[in-house]
Hints:
This protein is α+β, with helices and mostly antiparallel strands. It is 43% helix and 15% strand. The mean pLDDT is 94. Strands 1, 2, 3, 4, 5, 6 and 7 form a 7-stranded mixed sheet that branches. It has 2 domains: 164 residues, Endonuclease III, domain 1 (Orthogonal Bundle), CATH 1.10.340.30; 135 residues, Alpha-Beta Complex (Nucleoside Triphosphate Pyrophosphohydrolase), CATH 3.90.79.
Amino acid sequence: MQEMIETIRRRLLAWFRRTQRDLPWRQTYDPYHVWISEIMLQQTQMERGVAYFHRWISRFPDLAAVAAASEQEILKCWEGLGYYARARNLHRAARLLRDRYGGQIPCDYRTLQSLPGVGPYTAAAIASIACGQDVPVVDANVARILARLYDLEEPVKSAGCRQRIEALAAALLPPGKARAFNQALMDLGGLVCTPKNPDCHHCPLAEACLARLRGTVADRPVPARRRETVLIEMATAILSNEGRVFIQQRLADDIWGSLWEFPGGRLEDGETPEEAVIREYREETGFEVEICGRITTVTHFYTRYKVVLHCFACRLVGSDTVARLEAARDCRWVSAGQLSEYGFPAGHRKLLEYLAVARPEFLVDPCR
């Protein structure tokens, strides 16, 4: 068994030395850079994560800059990555590190887990990759590799299988080489031992892989039972008045907390999208509005939900422009040019992207 472990270590590290990806946070292994990259790459593809990393570091070159920024600056720079709780937790953690740790990111695995938004995986990544501590890192890539390497027959997300994978990762970790070994596993999962059509022919661990020997690679890892996608229909409208449009800021504890949006919401039973817009504006702002045109329909996915957002233009009925907010923390009338200064959730951002390409003149007077 130990001989096999040594073979896996040797072959994987040799492969990593030859093929490791040129990623920006690997240039310095600065704990701040590693931390940002790990938070960004959760639920984000590598190429996209690298682009956002460069943009983020350009705007916030160090932890002090994050701590000094406003929440709106943080959310705007994060816009498009989704899962905005990650950005808010990152902001909170930066301020806590500034106030309690002198602006330094600790290397202790357990201390790292006490930071907002830093769970066992992120703490292990920072501790091992940035600080060189002997801590195994288990992400989806590593879990998939080990499920194939040891031909694990349990669903990979079950508690029992998860514990076994963590024990296997710890046993494989070569003392003093955690930085290279953990990154090698991540790269192997991203480049070779991929979810579909893995390149077993070029895998440095092919000879040790039980799933390959037994012909079960396509069946590993064993997935959890797939949950049904839930369809949610929503409606929103851009309200214009004298060359400005109305936006409101979501409550801090909402699912997209503190982001800005055009009022709207979920369709009720038997309700048309147009009726939903009129009702939502009345309930959320006190405004009476009338629809003056349909813009488009955008679709986005959030975890297991498919959200279909019907988008309209509307105008005020009457002259009152002072909103009485019921489901928001703030509101503003802004020009079309100012909209780019605010962070919007996915559906509303897609609406604005559509207008920028298809109808750039629209926001000047949506009801013209």
